[in-house]
Write a structure and sequence with these properties.
single chain, 379 residues, alpha/beta, 2 domains, seven-stranded parallel beta sheet
């Protein structure tokens, strides 16, 4: 659990599950890693037979997952060199070529949560590596951490209090982002576990003091989970916000699935945004927008954000501009910012300094208290 999260739109984060098995646009499959490696080696050994080189690379990579392939890059480089040249090269040269392969891999390993797991989890090339027990051994290995949400629920009540450094959240209940380092809706996680660790905690006496923001890239499974709850006669808590990620027009289909989740509030994390998108905003309460950060960031055109500001206005959706990313541009011209993430809105054009929160969030606490009072037995 992270208290005082640096994420602009939430107070804290919590992960009842660590890791993710759902492939998405932000993390590559082993096949995609293999293709990336093959293209790299084609450039390194242009005179080699392409089919033979492909067979060599495929044989070296075997059936490893993406994390392991990333970690085995130096072993792979040494193996390809030996197979192509017939002789090994100096360790220094192997390391230099492996650095080039890493640079190519870093262009496709852009999921922040996956990156953090590779830093803190196990390393197939270093069995003695000191790992962080709060993370899954590998991002691909789903690991449950029961009790984390209960600990988060026990935190102090922030309702009607100012939120330090985040004035846009002033006087709201504490907001807790669920699954910033994972996707708890991965198919390996049983619905009973999600019911106990997320739904029941959010609906509990302590949990109902807060607003829980549950993000997934698999909204169709979240909707299935919602139907499963309904069949069991359990209501989706009003303070549990259903969220999904959109990064381009192709992934906008997730919005359709999100709308079928039986949650009172629904929100979109349109981040990192890679192109202009037109989204079906009706029925969406909150739209959080941001450009990509990090050394491999793609450009973020301010016109994409401006379009979403207008779409939100038209639908009555609260718009929250999180960050402009590392490479913002306007009309093809790069915008230089001091903040490497583009998160300091004092550097932004005035018309993009929008950090609204759904009006329903502000009235939610009073409504829940009234419901609890009405449900209480009379004396």
């Amino acid at each position: 659990m992270s208290k005082a999260s640096p994420i602009q739109w939430t107070d804290d984060t919590v992960n009842p599950v660590m890791g993710c098995s759902a492939l998405c646009e932000l993390r590559p499959s082993p096949a995609q890693v293999g293709t990336c490696a093959q293209n790299f080696f084609k450039a390194q050994f242009p005179e080699s037979d392409a089919a033979a080189l492909k067979k060599i690379v495929g044989g070296l990579m075997g059936d490893h997952n993406a994390t392991e392939l990333y970690q085995l890059r130096e072993v792979t480089v040494a193996g390809v060199i030996k197979a192509v040249d017939g002789n090994p090269r100096a360790a220094k040269e192997v390391k230099a070529i492996a650095k080039g392969l890493k640079d190519e891999f870093d262009k496709i390993f852009i999921c922040y949560a996956h990156q953090q797991h590779m830093m803190r989890g196990t390393d197939i090339t270093n069995p003695d590596k000191r790992t962080n027990p709060g993370y899954a051994a590998q991002f691909e290995i789903l690991t449950k951490y029961p009790g984390r949400t209960a600990v988060a629920a026990a935190q102090s009540d922030l309702y009607q209090k100012p939120h330090k450094d985040k004035p846009w959240l002033n006087y709201l209940p504490r907001t807790i982002f669920v699954s910033d380092m994972s996707d708890a809706l991965s198919k390996e996680i049983e619905f009973v576990y999600l019911e106990t660790e997320i739904v029941d905690v959010a609906a509990s006496k302590r949990g109902s003091q807060h607003i829980w923001l549950w993000l997934t890239k698999i909204p169709q499974r979240m909707a299935e989970f919602g139907r499963w709850l309904e069949k069991r006669g359990k209501k989706w808590p009003d303070n549990l916000v259903a969220m999904t990620t959109v990064t381009d027009q192709k992934t906008a289909v997730r919005v359709k699935h999100l709308k079928t989740v039986p949650a009172r509030f629904k929100a979109l994390s349109v981040e990192p945004l890679f192109e202009k998108v037109i989204l079906p905003m009706d029925g969406i309460d909150w739209c959080i927008v941001g450009g990509q950060s990090g050394p491999q960031s793609q450009s973020f055109d301010l016109a994409w954000a401006e379009s979403l500001v207008e779409q939100c206005k038209a639908s009555g959706t609260a718009m929250f501009m999180k960050q402009l990313g590392a490479k913002p541009e306007a009309k093809g011209v790069k915008i230089e910012l001091e903040d490497p993430h583009g998160g300091d809105w004092n550097e932004w054009p005035a018309h993009l300094r929008v950090r609204d929160v759904p009006a329903g969030f502000r009235s939610l606490r009073g409504e829940m208290a009234s419901q609890a009072s009405a449900a209480a037995p009379s004396t």
